[in-house]
Amino acid sequence: MKELAQLATHRLRIDWSGIHDIAYWNSPGRGIPLLYLHGLGGSKVDLAACVQQSFLASRSIWALDFPGMGETLYSPNNSLSMYDLVEITHSFVKQVALPRFILAGHSMGGIVGLLFARKYPELVGCFLNVEGNLSPEDCFFTKKALNMRQLGREREYLLEFRQSMLDSDEPGFASYGANLSKNVRSFHAWYDYCHSIVDCSDNAKLMETFQTLPVARFFVYGQESRGLAYIPDLQRCGIGTWAVPGSSHFPHFSNPEAYAHLLAQLPGDVQDSLK
Predict the structure, then answer these.
(1) Domain locations in the chain as residue ranges
(2) Shortest CA distance to 179 belongs to which of 88, 35, 21, 71?
(3) Any bridge partners for residue 27, and if so which?
(4) CATH architecture for segment(s) 4-274
(5) What is the DSSP secondary-structure string of 168-218?
(6) How far is the C-alpha of 247 from the C-alpha of 255, rounded, in Å?
(7) Non-local CB neighbours of 240 within 8 Å, separated by 6+ positions
(8) Chain centroid offset of residue 205 CA
């Protein structure tokens, strides 16, 4: 089992739409590396409890903080979109010289991962979309956040949103709320990302892109999200769907052991194609 001390923060300077001092960690291991992209209000630390599980003990895992989240700053002159995060991720991959890897993206990171895999399929051996947006209906709080921003209540709304998470009886939501204040370094980044998430969900044909992606792909969801209307459609298209038991939208908090086990288990034919 890996110790948290092994997950020391490193930094990488990336020049894309400004200079970004990207914070990241790498959990050393063997075999096919896994690159993890966090969601809105998340950070690289989201995966820490999973990395400590024995299932992932031998896996090489990389995770970074997007600008304005975790330990990466966001310039007030920036106005970044999901497409910018794709290019920042690409620059990161090139600089650390990652070979072909497993790409896992949670929520907002699922959008970034999907757009990345579409543009750079030669780098992605397998894409795990962990409840990343695929339709406009997935913008369950980002649209409200934008409405509050138009009313000049953006700071107030983020505090209210955090409290609503803390008040949840579901451990995953409560843990997300508890980490929100330290993970969101910039209100500006939060709302820029909300705007881009809504725009991509409405206009970027994410479902079509996911269904036609030229790499192995799977949709991962918390068991409590099993009512998502498009899961049967994904299954009919032959896309693998994996449920994390005892979990909500935040499986890394709700059930890190089961989530780690899922991340470590790919079908044999996918494993063979990545060797």
Answers:
(1) 4-274
(2) 71
(3) 61
(4) 3-Layer(aba) Sandwich (3.40)
(5) -SSHHHHHHHHHHHHHB--HHHHHHHHHHHHHHHHHS-HHHHHHT-SSEEE
(6) 6
(7) 217, 218, 219, 267
(8) 19
State the residue for tokens 């009886």: 169
Helix or strand run (H / E) with residue 30: strand 30-37
Spatial neighbors of 96 by CB under 8 A, at least 6 apart, are: 12, 26, 62
Question: What's the pTM value of the predicted model, to 2 decimals?
Answer: 0.95
Tokens (6 digits) for 35: 């690159």
Candidates 139, 142, 137; CA nearest to 194 is 142
Question: What is the three-class DSSP state of 72?
Answer: coil
Distance CA 155, CA 181 (A): 12
Report residue 209 CA to chain centroid gap.
17
Q: How many CB atoms lie within 10 A of CB 106?
A: 27
Partners of 12 in beta bridges: 22
From first to last of the 275 residues of the chain, give the pLDDT tens digit. 455 545 789 999 999 988 899 999 998 888 789 999 999 999 999 998 898 888 887 889 999 999 999 999 998 888 999 999 999 999 999 999 999 999 999 999 999 999 999 999 999 999 999 999 999 999 989 999 999 988 989 889 999 999 999 999 999 999 999 999 999 999 999 999 999 999 999 999 999 999 999 999 999 999 999 999 999 999 999 999 999 999 999 999 999 999 999 888 875 556 555 55
- Is residue 181 within 8 A of residue 162, CB to CB? The reply is yes
Burial 10-36 (b: 16+ CB within 10 A, else e): eebebebbeebebbbbbbebeebbbbb
